[in-house]
């Protein structure tokens, strides 16, 4: 099962070589009540301890594959199902320090059945998450 | 008691369990709960509840049928989407819309469903549906007939019964003369007061532009009588039944009177949409079904 | 998965012939942090809308079998694991009426590693539960 | 960073996830979480976490090994019970106690564990253990040796390090001369202030007689140095690490100093026992491991 809050405790970690991390990852539960085509995902904003990371550079790992944001937009078959977390990989040379960080995610999904002026749908979630190692 | 002597079928949509799904319950747990609470009809969202949609494994499909058989559940409606904004920078063609609907119809047919609700994209603030819908549906009427499926767009507040959208649907039905098309009424249109849902795992807003959703009045139940002949399915949308088994938001006695008096013998499929709190759906669904069964029993006695 | 509270929404129902129920059932999640031998279960008390039902007459259904309370005490191998609910069947001619009931359970388990004068361990749980049909 | 250059092994007991287990997480989910947070050692409760205890299926056992292999986890300690009050109306014989312990040793051995902690029944208000324990353990020393398992009773508050119970354990060890027996120290004995846990799915009381648990003072960490030579395992009991990565209840720097200075290279296995709230264990375990790793890193640097 996934954790109730969107940003999961599991999966928050640095990536890249131990001596020189290239960024960090976070695992996100879908807030939506169905799975959806990856091209309906819009740019997310990830903020860690006040530092904002633009969605263009965020890599998406979904059960169907790994995608840059541009690839996700163009994909004919990428899917984010309800029962699998998306892994967002955010570039940040050096990674994050060991300890507790305040992480905020603005997740944006485009829905076809809601008037355009009320879109995208935006979920904002914040949690304290731990870099253990 | 536990015989099902109701004038209609009573079902549950797995949408009800949204706050629990993947968090405190698996899809299988939800289906077990639907059976445990005594419902006979099982509604799902294709993109929500089928593992590896749109290509479930044969093992998943075998387990689906074995479980429904064991639990005495009948697949009722399969909710689908025609995501007209799926391609950034351009609209969806009618052929693409038809292909999406065909995909879902085939999958629904394979899983034994009798109804498919395509949720169609809109093109205006007053919720006019994308004009590709007519061709997308029309191209699939033959397939729907082969599969024994009725396609039924959902009348969901703020779209109401007396609306241009419903007129468009009824004109389509008349023009094509098809019996594979009808209306799905979501009982949320009959709210007697607005419910303000609490909870949820994140704060939510619709867009950054500060636009406000349309303010549409709710609908008198008498409007329902006018479209009963075209109505093939009900989503029994509800929010809260209190500790005295009273629903302060939906006029169930009135709704059931119109439904049963019209001779409707189809499904009432519960859609819990109250506070976004884990575990609340299972309890509230039981309350709503106890309430609906009580009302049906009162009618029998009078 | 089981519901967090001990008395589950699922499984609360009348038993016996529809026209003349002989009692009701409730499904209970174990509050303990391990599974245990059935003979370590002591008499429970079930109360519905103020009416108390004595534990001697309550039938226990566990993954290992069905037991009267006396059988449970004598059993060499009955077990209540953490991951399966116990089903308690309580005799009550006529069963319970359709609607919402206030159900209270006092569950008693005997622990060997706690001084005798502090035993049994007693968990009390109350919920509103629904007889649907 | 992600290399594990610690002077001891860092593990997690699945007991930590008690509020989640069966409710928001399966046993498998918990084990995945232990690996995700970077621990290498996996502790379980035999009666808590083995499906169909005491007879797990071979499929369960195969999956256990395959998962641990995939996740890089080493089985550490298997918690067992000698339930001396299991037979209503009479005590447990030493032979019955030995049989229970043998059952758990065999199962622990089959699953690759190196330590078994039997929790032994008590016979008095001051927690004197049932005298059958000596024979029950002694009869199993040979089996433990065959299986490569060390049997280690747990020193758990309100039993403290300087106590008749610990003396009894150390006399047993000396008398038998066995190397299959040692002490497990639960760090809860070193609490610097009491933690009052909130939450839980039911109200709880111990007995109807109004008896009060013994009021025993906590233990200075200096007492630990005296028994380090007999200590084979630590349960790193904790309650709360705050948002500044500070534990106000347990003196981790002092504990780690004694542990590492003594030359101990065994396991520290985390036991979260704070507020009884789902999801809290996963977060708190990460905080505690970050704290312990920080302290170990400070020691390396100084
Ligand atoms: Mn609906
Ligand atoms: Mn312990």
UniProtKB/TrEMBL annotation, chains A, C:
Q: Which UniProt keywords apply?
A: Carbohydrate metabolism, Lyase
Keyword Lyase among record annotations: yes
Segments forming domain C-glycoside deglycosidase beta subunit:
2-113
Q: Which InterPro entries match?
A: CGDB
The family annotation for this protein states: Belongs to the C-glycoside deglycosidase beta subunit family.
Q: Would you tell me the protein name for this molecule?
A: C-deglycosylation enzyme beta subunit
Organism, scientific name: Microbacterium rhizosphaerae
TrEMBL record, chains B, D:
Domain Xylose isomerase-like TIM barrel: from-to ranges: 32-293
Q: Superkingdom of this entry's organism?
A: Bacteria
InterPro entries per UniProt: IolE/XylAMocC-like (IPR050312), Xyl_isomerase-like_sf (IPR036237), Xyl_isomerase-like_TIM-brl (IPR013022)
Q: Does the entry feature the keyword DNA damage, yes or no?
A: no
Q: Does the keyword Metal-binding apply?
A: no
List UniProt keywords, sorted A-Z: Carbohydrate metabolism
**The protein's name:** TIM barrel protein
Native species: Microbacterium rhizosphaerae
């Amino acid at each position: 099962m996934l954790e109730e809050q969107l940003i999961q405790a599991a999966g928050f970690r640095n990536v890249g070589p131990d001596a020189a991390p290239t960024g960090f990852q976070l695992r996100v539960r879908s807030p939506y009540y169905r799975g959806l085509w990856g091209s309906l995902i819009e740019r997310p904003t990830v903020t860690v301890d006040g530092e904002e990371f633009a969605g263009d550079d965020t890599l998406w790992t979904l059960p169907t594959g790994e995608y840059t944001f541009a690839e996700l937009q163009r994909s004919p078959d990428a899917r984010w199902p309800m029962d699998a977390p998306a892994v967002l990989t955010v570039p940040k040379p050096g990674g994050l320090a060991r300890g507790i960080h305040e992480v905020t995610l603005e997740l944006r999904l485009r829905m076809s059945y809601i008037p355009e002026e009320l879109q995208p749908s935006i979920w904002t979630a914040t949690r304290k998450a731990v870099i253990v190692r | 008691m536990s015989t099902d002597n109701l004038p209609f079928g009573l079902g549950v949509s797995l949408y009800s369990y949204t706050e629990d799904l993947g968090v405190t319950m698996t899809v299988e747990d939800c289906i077990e709960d639907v059976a445990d609470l005594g419902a006979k009809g099982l509604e799902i969202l294709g993109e929500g509840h089928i593992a590896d949609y749109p290509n479930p494994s044969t093992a998943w499909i075998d387990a689906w049928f074995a479980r429904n058989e064991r639990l005495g559940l009948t697949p009722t409606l399969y909710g689908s989407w025609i995501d007209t904004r799926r391609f950034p920078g351009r609209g969806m063609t009618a052929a693409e819309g038809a292909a999406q609907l065909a995909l879902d119809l085939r999958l629904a047919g394979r899983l034994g469903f009798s109804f498919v609700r395509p949720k169609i994209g809109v093109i205006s603030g007053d919720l006019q549906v994308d004009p590709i819908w007519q061709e997308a549906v029309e191209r699939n009427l033959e397939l729907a007939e082969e599969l024994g499926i009725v396609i039924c767009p959902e009348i969901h507040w703020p779209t109401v019964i007396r609306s241009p959208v419903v007129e468009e649907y009824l004109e389509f039905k008349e023009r094509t003369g098809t019996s594979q098309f009808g209306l799905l009424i979501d009982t949320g249109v009959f709210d007697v007061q607005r419910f303000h849902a609490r909870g949820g795992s994140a704060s939510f807003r619709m867009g950054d532009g500060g636009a406000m959703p349309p303010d549409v009045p709710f609908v008198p139940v008498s409007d329902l009588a006018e479209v009963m002949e075209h109505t093939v399915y009900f989503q029994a949308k509800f929010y809260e039944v209190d500790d005295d088994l009273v629903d302060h938001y939906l006029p169930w006695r009135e709704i059931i009177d119109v439904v049963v008096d019209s001779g409707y013998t189809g499904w009432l499929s519960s859609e819990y949409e109250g506070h976004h709190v884990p575990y609340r759906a299972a309890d509230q669904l039981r309350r709503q079904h106890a309430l609906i069964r009580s009302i049906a029993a009162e009618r029998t006695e009078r």
